[in-house]
Amino acid sequence: MDANSIRIASYNMRKARGLDQQRRPERILQVINGLAADVVLLQEADKRLGPRQPALPREMIESETDFELVEVCANGISIGWHGNAMLVRKGLSVRDIQRLHLPGFEPRGAVRITLGIGAGLTIVATHLGLLRRDRRAQLTVLDEATSGDNHVVIAGDFNEWSSRKGLEPLAQRFETLSPGKSFHAGRPIAALDRFALTHGLEVRDGGVEQGTLARVASDHLPIWSDILVPEVTSVNGT
Fold it and tell me: Residue 176: which pLDDT band, with cuts at 50, 70 and 90?
């Protein structure tokens, strides 16, 4: 790929519990490794009860992948924030790590980083709520939180079944897209997992991982997108 291209993947891993009801983190990592991504955004990466233990052990990420975990947890135990975790390919420059609180009936959050690629790329990982009014309020917060950034990708489980409603807060600055139907993994009928990109970012390719392992490892299929980030321009525009 181009030097300023990056592959971003998003995966609701359902706490590593597959459709066979077995909790197998090693299976999730096999799926992740097969995506050939530079950045992987995970939802439901931690267990919800008690101290929110990781569903993907840190030592397993370190020993079985070429990724580094972005430290976003607030309790020193989890690998994510409200279940949102980020893995980045070793060698990528990560800065401006931020946890974002999202409004709504359920506890929800997002995590935000900036990568030193091209003119700079802000990536936000999120898992939106089950109620549309909450999702709209959450997207408004994410739009405002990234208003000072030129190039932004918001990705995750948007939990929105409609292709026409619910995403209005992003309409002015973002193009929202889905590479395909990602839920339910056993019989995909809905495009719940999506990317939202600010204007100026170019999508080169994208898809849904539908291999045999992905179809049983979680109730969602992973999505991915190859994105071209504009070059830094000088004050003279060259």
Answer: very high
pTM score, whole prediction: 0.95
Cβ neighbour number for residue 58 with a 10 Å cutoff: 11
Which domains, and CATH codes, for the chain? 5-182+189-227 (3.60.10.10)
Angle at 52 between CA 167 and CA 136, to 5 degrees: 10
Looking at residue 233, its pLDDT comes to: 63
pLDDT score of 187 more than 70: yes
* Alpha-carbon dihedral 137, 174, 185, 160, rounded to 10 degrees: 30
Would you give the end-to-end CA distance of the chain in angstroms?
A: 23
The shares of helix, strand and coil residues in the chain, as percent rounded to the nearest 5, are 15, 35, 45
Average pLDDT over residues 60-66: 97
What does the block give as tokens for 40?
């992987």
DSSP states of 213-237: THHHHSSB--EEEEEEPPPP--TT-
> Nearest CA to 145 among 194, 198, 89?
198
CA pair distance 87, 125, nearest whole angstrom: 11
Environment class of residue 59 by beta-carbon count within 10 Å: exposed (0-12), middle (13-18) or buried (19+)?
exposed
